[in-house]
Amino acid sequence: MSPRRLLRDLDWYLVLLAGALALMGLLFVDSATADVDTETSAAGKHALVLAAGAVVAVGVVVVHYARFMRAAWLLYGLSIVSLLLLPWFGMVINGARRWYRLPGGFALQPAEFAKLALIVVLASYLRFRHKATTWEGLFVPVLITLVPAALILKQPDLGSSMVLWPVLLAMCFVAGTPLRAVLGLLGVGALALGVGYLFMHDYQRTRIQVWLEHFDWQPEVVPIQPEEPAVEAAAAKEAHAAALAVYRDEREAYDRMQTLLRSSAYQPWQALIAIGSGGMSGFGVGNGPQNVHGFLPYRESDYIFAVVAEETGFVGGLLVIGLELALAVRILTVAARSRERFGRLLAVGVAVYLAAQSLMHVAVCAWVVPATGLPMPFLSQGGSSTLAALLAVALVANVSARREPVLAADGFV
Amino acid sequence: MSGSARRILAVGILLVLGAVVVLGALARSMLHDHALWLERSYRNRWAFRDVPTRRGSICDRHGVPLVRDQPRFALELDYDTFRRRNPLGAAVAGARLLWPDAFDHAHFDAAETAALRLLQLPAKALHAEASSKELARDLRFYVSSVADGLSAKPRAECVRLLLAAVADRSELAVLDVLGLSRDQVARTARRRSESLRQLAAILRANGGEADLGALLEKQWDERIADRGRLLPVRTLARSLPFEVAADLACALEEWRGFRLRPAVDRGTSDLAAQLPSVSSLLGVVTPLGTHRNDGDRLKGMVDDLVEKAQVQDALPDDLDLSEDAVARLQARASSFLRNRVMLAGRYGRSGVESAMESMLAGQLGLRFVERDAHARERLLYRSLDVNPGHDVRVTLDVALQGVLERVLDTHARGLDTAMAVIDARSGDILAIGGRPLTIEQGGKLLERTISPAVTWRNAGYVGSLAKPFVLLEQLAAERAGLPHSDRASFIPCEKRYKEIPGTPRWLECDDFHGEDGRDPALAVAESCNVFFFQVAEGLGMEGLRRAFARAGWFDLAADERAMVQVRVPGVSGLSRPRVDPQGHMLQHVGIGYGVKASALSVARAYAALATGRLPTLGLVVDAERSPAIDLAVPADDLALVQEGLRRCVTEGTAASVSGLAELGVHGKTGTAEVNSKDENNAWFAGYLLAPSGRPTLAFAAVAYTVEDHGKESARMIADFLHGLAALPSGEALRRRWLQGEEDR
């Protein structure tokens, strides 16, 4: 395909939406890391990753996507190997072994690329309709997904491994898997979650317990230290004893809440404060107190949306979610327009991956779901996440630029 | 639309629905509950900080500081940090997980051993498979803290290496995994335990926690008993001097869990420290709420302080909060200030510190600031000014006080003594003191917390010190035609006067004065009882009461101008003089029986004899004072009494005490029987008439329950005056007090 035709047929909305999100990401990463005293600014580093990602993305768009289809199993195999080697060569940060150390202070998170590889391999596998509509067509994709999901879970990275399942379900569903089979899988997934709870790490279980508990705190409870009742006259001794018992209960609840707010509930609670205090229009970029004063941990990555909401309010949050959703919808449009199943499924997988990860990130920030570390595509600082998101969009752009009818078999290019 | 497109549409709809759900949750927090979260955001970053105030200093009449606030440091223990981050604390905590009874905090050597044993564990022992998830997690944490604290390796590096080795179920010891030298670690552990031992010694030496090891052990027990709850920070020492604190601060990095914070100590100046009576007189300052009996008094005091602070003024006017939220913020500010006042506040419990509390006490300041997550202040919104306490100048003169203390030390060997020196004209208390400084109660030696010479046994029977006033009243009665005996009819002193009815005892004099006993001046000088028995018989009890009222020992009636000075601002526990003739014969009352007064009251009375005006005693310079009360006696009468007092030291009962007459001392000895003939209150009181003709000092000295008849007390006064005359750099004092030159 000639470059001119490629440029003409490319879905520029995708590029615009991704570019807008990337710029917003740059803005908020800069805001969230303004007080971090490092030799290289985090925003600068993020810009470097975006630039490098853009170059790689151009390369991805130029090569016909069918080549990725052919290399699907190789990519998948590489991602699995990279996940497998983590326990030996990976570095530990905050108790999790998720990254390979790279020169120049960079790190590579194979899980982010594994998501992409999974989408490619699932699209490759499900591109044959006869496979997609059989039990084998459901069983094998589940198995394909289970391997990286288990390896990612082992790191541990519950959030990333959770993102894989909506991608699988959506791709299977679009590939033609009967709805009842998809719902059945959903049920099995829910059951597996329940069983999985028993095998979770303590901190993960605590996060879930605290999350369940926190619904009782809202919205009226602001922890106020209870006051000890004054000692009354002897005649009122019984009443005083009763008041003292109530006080002790309140005090115990207060102490427990204080302990939780300082430990396992600290991050989500601070994120909620940031989001809730943002109101309609926020404090202004670079002025969010929770962000500026460092109350919000991991605000440049796992809680970047809380910074967005605090500084630009509901309007800004709506804009970011709207952009992410618009990107996903646009990708689904590309999928719908594609005349070839691999490209269609690839686009569906990418759309769900980006949307699910974005919505889960927002849900984590708003404590709608238990706290877990999950970057927001394009917005969060994190080279691997940003690069993976850019490559994913580039793959879809590739599909969008090639609309000629192709055979649903190898050797059509 | 193809089936595939429909399914894509369904996926799209699901994604939009997901977004709607998330947006709904956001809308609830950001729009519906915005005010609530905004308040939480404010509470997160807004903080109140107190600004410590300075309590006023107490200086002597020339501005020499006696007590003042001195910056000090308090050492605190945050046990949870000690247990988690201090290698020795973590070593014991970690070792107890494996060997519950083998180690404790109380023995610092045990911590050393525990650290080494933990680091010698094979890495695989820290794997969940070796025990349980929780135990393995806790063990890894403590081992990391120990390794981090006892080596130069950063904690992150230790954790990384350790986790990798644990994941590999390595057989290597933790020490080897981390690449640490066994000897090096052992040396560091020993140095750490030694420094902890030194810290314990420093605390003991500076009045802090007596047994640090036992306290750490107790904290452990409390933590076990109340698992999950953070232990409050404990204060180990409240008043560490700068030099000690500076050394500690340099080593605090090694003592994680311990922290220093600025404190203040009510320190006695070096000069005042040499004046033991002064410390007692000035009183003590204690932190609020440290005494069980403080109760409502303190509550009221703190309420007043908080109300006076007008906390609402510390909040910005343009708060973007609801009225309820502002009210909560105000309540929080009040509560904060109240807590700080209770924690940091001090008050005078006794002496001048207590009496002048309103002047000395300052008021804490309050700053309303924006802080970051590390508690660093980023912005100051508003503040309440701190009000330091006012300095108080007392009328004491440290030079005179120093002389007085030396005299007391010299004379009070085994004796209970008290001595007071005042300015005869103004009533300023210049020097005051007493011995002993400690009292025994129930076989236990108690620190004395009451002012010497004004309380305790100081209000003793004055005996013959009353005679000059009785004589004054005799002279006044003669002029006014009030009931009295005619002096011409007085019989000479034959030692014995009259038999006491119903007893074999006699009303008698100590000596045979003959015709001299009819001379009023000589009767005073020689302290002739027979003369005063006859005066008393003439004056009757009413007349004697008038006499004692003139001395300021008795108020004739409630509606008359009070002569008795009940209170001296700054002097706590002043005993009220008493005239209680009950059980005493009229004649005995005439020679001072039944009359009790303190050394201060006696000095005041004799100041009146010197000047003709009963001064109002004062201990605080510039404090409001009633004017002196005119005795309303003719100068001739007063001169006659003064002549008697002069002759007392030249040829009378105090003549044998050298050094009084040449300085111009006018005075009177006095003896009051307490138990038997051999146990007396031996007094000497008088004033100094300077060569310029001006009375300067008035004084009283008393030795309780001695055989002596006032001469010991007279010697104390003589030594005091000679001490004053011999002060190496006391020229100005000599000119003023001994020469009677006016202040320029």
Largest interface: which pair? A-B, 57 and 53 residues
Radius of gyration of chain B: 38 Å
H and E order of chain A: HHHHHHEEEHHHHHHHHHHHH
How many β strands of chain A by DSSP?
A: 3
Mean pLDDT of chain A: 84
Low-confidence regions of chain A: 407-413
Side-by-side strand order of the widest sheet of chain A = 1-2-3
Number of helices of chain B: 26
What oligomeric assembly is this protein in?
heterodimer
- Could you estimate the helical fraction of the residues of chain A in percent? 55-70%
Give the overall form of chain B: elongated
- Class by SSE composition of chain A: mainly alpha
How many runs of DSSP E, i.e. beta strands of chain B? 24
What percent strand of chain A? under 5%
Radius of gyration of chain A: 24 Å
Give a nutshell description of this structure.
Chain A is 69% helix and 3% strand. With 413 residues, chain A is mainly α. A 3-stranded antiparallel β-sheet of chain A has the order 1-2-3.
What does this entry look like structurally?
The complex is a heterodimer of chains A (413) and B (744). Chain A has 413 residues and is mainly alpha-helical. Chain A has 18 helices and 3 strands. Helices cover 69% and strands 3% of the residues of chain A. In chain A, a hairpin with a 5-residue loop joins strand 2 and strand 3. With 744 residues, chain B is of the alpha+beta class. Chain B has 26 helices and 24 strands. In chain B, the strands form 8 sheets. In chain B, strands 2, 3, 4, 5 and 10 form a 5-stranded mixed beta sheet that branches. The chains are: A mainly alpha (413), B alpha+beta (744). At the A-B interface, helix 10, helix 13, helix 14, helix 15 and helix 16 of A face helix 1, helix 2, helix 6 and helix 7 of B.
